[in-house]
Write a structure and sequence with these properties.
Layout: H1 50-80, H2 90-122, H3 126-139, H4 145-157, H5 160-173
Helix pairs in contact: 1-2, 1-4, 2-3, 3-4
Length: 174
């Protein structure tokens, strides 16, 4: 018999799953084996681990958030180059254009770092976990969406067991 929550093997009469702690309903005797030649299917699919489940979602969120950050970054970067702001009077242009260029370059660098982290998480690269943790901690100040992404990143990647599982996945995909 198997746990309905995590798929772990359980002993008949057991009240709680020893792996996940889920309460087990009273189960009847297992059904008799089918007499056909086809092998019986496993009662539950293999259980996905925490990182396998959440790393893909996290990578897609980082790619999407960084892709959206590219739009204002490129706009400010081009604005800082003076291509768009010909309508601003000259005395103010000397003040606004360098600030817009520096801000655009900073946003562009952070967007590129997020895209690299998202790609690395999709492919379980060993360095991507650390990069995503750093970017997640920095994005906590960008309320509300950056804060949510930062909290989710830290929740998925920061625990010690997550580090071990991510390293195992990184070594199997190389």
């Amino acid at each position: 018999m198997f746990c309905h929550n995590c798929g772990a093997s359980i002993i008949q009469g057991q009240k709680f799953c020893s792996k996940c702690g889920a309460e087990l309903a009273a189960t009847a005797n297992p059904p008799a084996q089918a007499t056909s030649a086809a092998p019986a299917a496993a009662p539950f699919p293999p259980v996905q681990k925490r990182i396998e489940k959440h790393a893909r979602i996290l990578a897609i969120l980082w790619l999407a958030a960084s892709g959206l950050r590219l739009l204002p970054a490129l706009g400010l970067f081009l604005l800082g180059g003076g291509f768009v702001m010909h309508f601003v009077p000259f005395p103010m242009r000397a003040f606004i254009l360098p600030i817009a260029g520096v801000l655009g370059a900073f946003l562009l660098a952070s967007a590129l770092a997020g895209l690299i982290a998202g790609w690395g998480l999709l492919h379980y690269r060993p360095w991507a976990r650390v990069l995503a943790l750093v970017l997640g901690a920095v994005s906590l100040i960008h309320f509300p969406f950056g804060t949510a992404l930062g909290i989710y990143t830290l929740w998925v990647l920061l625990p010690t067991e997550s580090e071990r599982e991510y390293q195992r996945l990184a070594h199997t995909t190389i």
